[in-house]
Design a protein that fits this description.
The protein is mainly alpha-helical and 123 residues long. It has six helices and two strands; from the N terminus they run αααββααα. A hairpin with a 2-residue loop joins strand 1 and strand 2. GO terms for molecular function: DNA binding.
């Protein structure tokens, strides 16, 4: 199945559904920050997520309990691949260099990354 890119609002709701594992629209709204969007807005976005293949539901009469079909890890892989190919020429080195230049990585994190690299080399 092809994964599609999510809008910011869709991704925010997916983050909550991944956290909940399953829930009703009201459960999702409870975890949204203030000001809370209208019930119909959240319901509509969740139905769009269902159309995109990210979410499915169990029906209990007129109530629907939604749950993720695409895991957070699957979307993370998709988003990372898109970021790598779109902005860093599929080069981890270019991406790492970017974060170092932007000072998004401190010395402790850089040390941890180097340890991971050494671990990979020794396999």
């Amino acid at each position: 199945m092809e994964i599609k890119e999510l809008t910011r609002a869709e991704e925010q709701l997916m983050q909550i559904l991944w956290q909940l594992e399953k829930g009703f629209v009201k459960d999702v709204i409870e975890l949204l920050p203030e000001p809370k969007p209208a019930y119909n807005t959240v319901s509509t976005i969740i139905r769009i997520l269902e159309t995109k293949g990210f979410v499915s539901h169990n029906a209990y009469g007129k109530s629907h309990e939604y749950y993720p079909v695409i895991s957070k890890e699957q979307y993370q892989n998709f988003a990372t691949d898109k970021l790598m190919s779109g902005y860093f020429d599929n080069s981890v080195q270019h991406m790492f260099s970017y974060f170092v230049k932007k000072e998004k990585i401190d010395l402790k994190e850089a040390d941890e990354i180097l340890k991971l690299i050494e671990k990979l080399k020794s396999k």
